[in-house]
C-alpha cells in the first residue's frame, strides 16, 4: 500500500501538466498510466492515412512530451490499470486499487485527491447492432486500422463519417477496395484553409457571420453534397462545435471520390444477417469487412464509484 497526496490517473498531456504543477509546489503525487507510454491515443494510425497535418507534427508532439517528462522529472507508472476507486468519507481519502498489467500484481493507493486525466477518449466505442456478433468477416475499430492495402478488391464498410471515417474511406478506395461509408447524421465538410480562415475571422466578427461565410465558401468548393447523401447541419460549423463539441470534417480528397462513385454513401444500419448488412430504406449489401470509426468513450465510470457521465 502506498500513500500520497494526489493520485493522477492518466499520463497524457493533461496528466503530465498536472504532475508538473504539483512538482513546482512540492506536492507529493503518483501518476499511473495503463498503457506503455504517454499520449498513447495520439492517433496511432496517422502514418498510414492522408491526414491534414503532417506526421512530423505528431512526432514532434510526442518528442515534446518526452522532453516535458524529463524536464519536470515525472515518473509515470506505466502498465498500471485502475480497477476501483472509492472515497472514504470517514478518513477523507480515496482508496484505489490498481493492477500491474505485466506482473498481474495488485497495487493499492491511498490519496487525499484523485485527478482523472484519462480523458473521454480512452476506450473504443463500437455500437450494438443486431447481428454484428455473427458477422463472418473482419470487424475492427478505427484505432486498429493500419492500411488499405490489405483490403484491396474487398467490399469494406466504414461506419462513421467523422474525420477518421472519411480518411479511412479515402485510404481504402485509394488501395482498390470497394468502399462504402455510413453517413447517418448531417455533417459539415470543410477544407483546412476554410477552418483556418474561420478561426481567424471569429476573433473580429460574430460567429453567425463567420459561419455563414464558411458555409457559402464550402458550397462553392464542394457544391451541393446532398445529392450524394451528405447533408449539412442546420447551424454553422463553429457554432455546432461550440454547442455540441462536434467538429467539421476536413476533406482530404474523400468528397472527390464520392462524387466519382468510388466511395458509396449509405444510410444507418438496421441489422446484419450473415455477411449481409441491411440499411435504413431497405437497401442491403454484402461486405467482407466492417471498420467502425465511431469514436471513443470514457472508462472512468467503470472504476470510479459514484461517477456519473454528464
Give an account of the 3D structure.
This protein has 310 residues and is an alpha/beta fold. The protein is built from 8 helices and 17 strands. The protein has helices spanning 13-24, 55-71, 163-174, 192-201, 207-222, 237-244, 254-259, 300-303; strands at residues 2-9, 29-32, 80-88, 93-100, 106-116, 123-124, 138-141, 155-159, 178-182, 189-190, 249-250, 263-266, 269-273, 276-279, 284-286, 289-292, 296-297. The strands form 5 sheets. A 5-stranded mixed sheet has the order 2-1-5-4-3. A 5-stranded parallel sheet has the order 7-16-8-9-12. Helix 4 packs antiparallel against helix 5 (207-222). It is globular, with a radius of gyration of 22 Å.
Side-by-side strand order of the widest sheet = 2-1-5-4-3
Q: Low-confidence segments, ≥5 residues, pLDDT <50?
A: 43-56
Average pLDDT score: 89
Task: Please state the structural category.
Answer: alpha/beta
Helices, by number, come to 8
Helix content: 25-40%
Principal-axes shape call: globular
The rounded Rg comes to 22 Å
SSE run: EHEHEEEEEEHEEHHHEHEEEEEEH
How many E strands?
17
Q: For the report, how would you describe the main beta sheet?
A: 5 strands, mixed
CA-CA gap between termini: 32 Å
Percent of residues in beta strands:
25-35%
Summed up:
This protein has 310 residues and is of the alpha/beta class.
Chain-wise SSE layout:
Elements: E1 2-9, H1 13-24, E2 29-32, H2 55-71, E3 80-88, E4 93-100, E5 106-116, E6 123-124, E7 138-141, E8 155-159, H3 163-174, E9 178-182, E10 189-190, H4 192-201, H5 207-222, H6 237-244, E11 249-250, H7 254-259, E12 263-266, E13 269-273, E14 276-279, E15 284-286, E16 289-292, E17 296-297, H8 300-303
Parallel strand pairs: 1-2, 1-5, 7-16, 8-9, 8-16, 9-12, 10-11
Antiparallel strand pairs: 3-4, 4-5, 6-17, 13-14, 14-15
